[in-house]
Design goal:
Blueprint (H helix, E strand, L loop, with lengths): L1 H42 L9 H24 L12 H25 L5 H33 L5 E6 L3 H12 L6 E7 L9 E2 L2 E2 L7 H8 L3 E4 L6 H12 L4 E4 L3 H5 L9 E2 L15 H8 L3 E5 L4 H11 L5 E6 L2 H14 L5 E5 L5 H11 L3 E4 L6 H6 L1 H21 L4 E7 L8 H21 L26 E7 L1 E3 L5 H10 L4 E3 L5 E2 L1 E3 H14 L5 E4 L5 E2 H11 L10 E3 L20 E2 L5 E4 L6 H16 L5 H8 L16 H17 L2
Helix pairs in contact: 1-2, 1-4, 2-3, 3-4, 4-5, 9-17, 10-17, 12-14, 14-15, 14-19, 15-20, 19-20
């Protein structure tokens, strides 16, 4: 029933648009002829009897021809297809052009085929034609504007716009015209350009710069602040939004500059200010041309393609012409959504979507044998820390053993490069999830070493199926690398969606510990780093993003509450629930032993591999497979034997001792006080 109503509404709107165009055409047919008649009438002192009959006869005879010419030229300039409620400079120019061209045609035709008319007839007629043609079209926009002004008398919400430029003017226009903002009044502009202070834009006063925000919020009783400076740098935006947060007003932000340039901005596009806009650093800039030249025309396999990172990898790679893109995931629902999105957006993409688990040796080897991927991005993993604490064997089976089996298949079937998606939780892990990912990194380093030393024949299958010809693995040349980054804003496992949901429900917002510290990055940054690893790789590296200073989760929660227009601990309570099993107060990016090497991108570094006995590690992995398959309760202790940096501590959390933690905490406190509080 709803679909039928939607179809009928769309049909009605389309028919209404056609009716308006037809009405305009009829109006123009009358207006262009009346224009020249009135010009002739004015020429003879507004006395019809004084007009010579030959002039009147000439006008009547020429009218059909001139009407047809005018309508044709108007149509060619899209004057019957424009949305006149948004009419602007472009429509003014096109209307003027049409009237000028038809005026010249009128003069030339009458002088060539008829008797020459008075000069005032030509000049006055062309001018009146322009006025009548333009007037009826712009009158609709004027009526909409007046309607918006009349609605604003019933004030429900007072708005301040930050930025008195083109974007700010666009916001004001949309607020006045949109039905979505009925009862909204724009009270003032704020802009740091002193030349605009005290002047009016669209009838609205520019009240001052950023230092006057608090004063004007109180003066006008502002309820909502809209940030409309799409060209602002991260630092400028951060500084202004931090002032705005202290007002208690709801904050909104305009989309990116490209949307403004393309004319795509509307009231519905203006979004809530997001926490990543307050992280206080520029986004990572990657030479994506080099990245996409690398993946173009190659067969690419993405495991865990339905997840936050995997799906964004798929989107970015799909846009740059891979020879074939193979998406592999255990959970069909998420990867199905990604498949539908990519097939619709890239109809010519050679896309294969497969369901299966990296824990299944036969399945993963069948995928490699069938499609022969040249580059593998291994994002498949269990990532939820508390859940893995209660199911440690599953973390090892899926993360560690699954990575080994996938890396083994990559070597066996001639893959060029294997990129592991790792995490900062792998550094000095205190939970089984982080430990399993550290073991994944060790797997990658072991494979890389064995390939370089041409010892792949010594690699165990870690499978109970031994009747398989693995001789091709002896010639393996695969390059193995890992990419390590922190918490990803906007991912399915991010704390941000939980906080937003709790705020929407009226609280409380739950934070595990007032001093808990995390590094954050956005999904595009994470994906850029993963892709870049595929081009920088020489084999065995762990790529690490410089994520700036850490952020306190407590501060992040308070910011979200403020950004939503509430007061922390007054409107929305914050509750501290205690550290969860295996959870750290902080995350590290590198183990102290690893050190740092530079890359062409100054925000991306390479951690030098920590040496370990690969032969002993491989023997331990075989035993680890058996222990995890038995679902043994001793799995955590056994992992601790293999991974020397693993410190399983359960509910008590893990803290740096002495100066190390104090230094990190002070850095976070200083950064948060400057950026977020």
């Amino acid at each position: 029933m709803a679909e039928t109503n939607n179809a009928e509404n769309k049909k009605h709107k389309k028919e209404k648009w056609k009716l308006i165009s037809l009405t305009l055409a009829v109006y123009d047919a009358v207006a262009v002829n009346l224009s020249f008649f009135f010009a002739l009438w004015f020429r003879f002192d507004c006395r019809y009897s004084a007009i010579p009959s030959e002039y009147i006869n000439q006008c009547v005879t020429f009218a059909p021809f001139y009407t047809a010419v005018c309508l044709a030229i108007y149509a060619s300039q899209k004057l019957y297809r424009s949305v006149w409620r948004f009419a602007g400079y472009n429509e003014l120019l096109r209307t003027g052009f049409c009237c000028a061209v038809t005026g010249v045609i009128h003069i030339a035709a009458t002088m060539m085929f008829f008797k020459r008319m008075p000069v005032l007839y030509y000049i006055g007629g062309t001018f009146l034609q322009f006025v009548l043609t333009l007037g009826v079209r712009f009158s609709y926009r004027f009526i909409v504007l007046l309607r918006g002004l009349s609605r604003s008398k019933e004030i429900k919400e007072n708005v301040m716009v930050i930025g008195a430029g083109a974007a700010g003017k666009t916001v004001v226009r949309e607020l006045l015209q949109s039905r979505e903002t009925k009862g909204t009044r724009v009270c003032c502009f704020i802009d740091d350009d002193e030349n605009k202070w005290g002047r009016y834009i669209s009838g609205i006063l520019v009240s001052g710069g950023r230092d006057d925000i608090l004063l004007n919020v109180k003066k006008y009783g502002i309820d909502k602040i809209m940030f409309a400076i799409p060209t602002a740098s991260i630092e400028e935006k951060r500084d202004i939004l931090n002032i705005c947060k202290e007002t208690g007003c709801e904050l909104k932000s305009l989309p990116g500059l490209y949307q403004l340039a393309n004319g795509e901005v509307s009231v519905s596009d203006i979004h809530d200010v997001t926490p990543d806009e307050l992280l206080g650093r520029e986004p990572v800039n990657v030479d994506m041309a080099a990245v996409y030249n690398y993946v173009s025309k190659k067969v690419i396999l993405i495991t865990g393609a339905g997840g936050s990172i995997g799906s964004d990898l798929a989107r970015q790679i799909a846009s740059h012409s891979p020879k074939k893109l193979v998406l592999f995931d255990m959970y069909e629902n998420n990867v199905y959504d990604v498949e539908q999105e990519l097939r619709k957006k890239y109809p010519n993409l050679d896309l294969v979507v497969l369901i299966g688990s990296v824990r299944d040796s036969r399945r993963i080897e069948n995928v490699f044998e069938t499609y022969r991927p040249q580059v593998v991005y291994h994002a498949a993993a269990h990532k939820h820390v508390p859940l893995m604490e209660t199911s440690p064997c599953e973390a090892i089976k899926n993360n560690t053993i699954g990575t080994y089996k996938t890396a083994y298949a990559a070597a066996k079937f001639g893959c060029e490069r294997f990129v592991l998606i790792s995490t900062d939780k792998a550094v000095n892990p205190t939970n089984i999830m982080g430990a399993s990912k550290r073991l994944c990194e060790m797997v990658i380093q072991t494979f890389d070493k064995m390939v370089k030393e041409k010892r792949m024949g010594e690699m165990p299958r870690l499978s109970y199926r031994l009747d398989v010809d693995d001789s091709s693995i002896l010639d393996a040349r695969t390059e193995y690398v890992a990419v390590r980054f922190g918490n990803v804003l906007g991912s399915s496992g991010s704390v941000i969606p939980l906080f937003k949901k709790q705020i929407a429900e009226g609280g409380p917002v739950t934070v595990t510990h007032p001093d808990i510290i995390r590094y954050f990055m956005t999904i595009p940054e994470a994906v850029s780093l993963v892709l870049l690893a595929g081009t920088f790789a020489k084999g065995g590296e762990i790529f690490v993003l410089d994520m700036g200073s850490p952020v306190k989760i407590d501060t992040l929660a308070r910011n979200l509450i403020k950004l939503s227009g509430f007061v922390p601990d007054v409107d929305i309570k914050i509750e501290y629930t205690g550290l969860r099993p295996g959870e750290k107060l902080y995350e590290e990016k590198l183990m102290s032993e690893e050190g740092m090497k530079k890359t062409p991108n100054h925000l991306i570094h390479i951690g030098c591999p920590i040496p370990f006995d690969c032969d002993a590690f491989l023997r331990q992995l075989q035993k680890l497979l058996e222990v995890s398959d038995e679902n043994s309760s001793s799995i955590v202790d056994f992992v601790a034997e293999i991974c020397s940096t693993f410190h399983p501590v359960g509910k008590d959390g893990y803290k740096l001792k002495g100066e190390a933690y104090s230094k990190l905490k002070n850095e976070a406190d200083e950064k948060n006080s400057a950026i977020l509080l």
